[in-house]
# Entry
Amino acid sequence: MRRLMVVMLFASGAAYAGDEGQIHLKDGPGKDLVQSHCSVCHSLDEIQINSPFLDKAGWTAEVGKMINVMGIPIDDNEKGQIINYLTANYGAK
Amino acid sequence: MTNRRQFLKNLAGVAAAGSAGILLPRTGFGSVPGDNPDLASGTREASILDALPGKKPLIKRTFRAPCYETPVSYFNEVFTPNDAFFVRYHLSNIPKVTAQDWKLRIAGESIEKPFELNFADLTNPKNFEHVEIAAVCQCSGNRRGINIPHVAGVEWGYGAMGNAMWKGVRLKDVLAKAGIKKDALEVVLNGAERGILDKTPDFIKSLPMYRALDENTIIAFEMNGQPLPFWNGYPARLVVPGWTATYWTKHITDISVVNKPFDGFWMKMAYRIPQGKFPIVARFISQETEVNTPITEMVVNSLITSVHEGERFHPGQMVEVKGIAWDAGYGMQMVEVSTDGGRSWKDAELGKDYGRFSFRPWSFRFKAEKKGSYGVMAKATNRSGNTQTFELIRNPAGYHHNVVQKVDIVVA
# Structure
């Protein structure tokens, strides 16, 4: 559904740039959720470049901002899985 | 901007990224030659050289919203080429604005006679006088990526900036045509860029009246003698010389003069710096709180462009250190260079002055007599006596990074 929304947006004439197919997130529990939710509004390299220096509190703040400010609807269960994925795979070492 | 085939290819890319288990070649990752070594490892690995339509290959930090950085080598020129000028968007819904369809609306409760103008109206010199100004456009977060400890955001190295000769009309002339009421407090700026989701706060900024009405604040439609590149705000953008690029609204479509502080997310919550930490003169009083204030003018800064980390020279060879310096428009007083890691400093020679808002080129020559490592540093001081810092001034969003650079070269 969300994928469809993104496709429709591009088809409606928005300027669009690079080849996001080059981006590969690390495998791990929660990856699918991250890909489907986070890529609605931005490319997933946004996660990669912000690593590995955010701790769990840092990723919680980022995900919280996306939900509370940017308006992506994610329930608490999925939110927790997304934060865990980001912390485990892209968190401070 | 993107042709149909490219467009479909891009869509295929998105689909591939979204489906788990598809392996594609990883070539290109972490392949930016000379990318800043102080960036986080994740930043360096995910960054590639990539060309947006109409642009040269730039350092891609993120594809969408597009954030592309200018490689340092381009700053050996005082004016940054249009096709190498950095690109920074906040939101991913970027309509394909054309000059034919474009309209600019002037409105707000503190405007006497709201009106709308098209591109021909804006650029007709019978309506508004044409003016030109050389000015540095620098992202507030330029160099964020080399903040240690790292902070979240777009992880820029040195190149989220550029200098151009901007041509356009004064914002104050356009607003005068609409008539400004006495209670005017801020000028609110909106461009075509917006969010994917309805709930995402639109990227809307405001300026205090004194800065909006400054004679140097213009609505630009040319950059270095050419129409603006699409990715730099075609067909018209705001140019606010001296202030960070967050106020330089691209693809500008709406300008409102209002009598209350604008309270959108991008003013109230984002682009803020702690009170009292930076030597800033320009204030934005109607947006200040006790703890923080909107970022306003740029801090004094410089960049070494001609020698790079680890570069080798022969004993007795003349080494030419070149670079640029800039500030918020107070003008450059001097640039000092050290070749011994900051123990001693000598004046560099300042190059041609293209105006107080422009990059100012400088150069320094010295003979590298002895073998060994030389810590080359440059430090700019402006005419109000402010200079660069040696120690990072930490702030949550990593703004105003102007820590003196050190480039180690080797004589052997």
Observations:
- Residues 30 and 47 of chain A are 14 Å apart (CA to CA).
- Residues 28-93 of chain A form a domain with the Cytochrome Bc1 Complex; Chain D, domain 2 fold (CATH 1.10.760.10).
- Chain A touches chain B at residues 3, 5-7, 9-10, 13-24, 31-32, 35-36, 39-46, 48-54, 58, 61-62, 69-72, 90 (CB under 8 Å).
- Confidence is low (pLDDT under 50) at residues 1-12 of chain A.
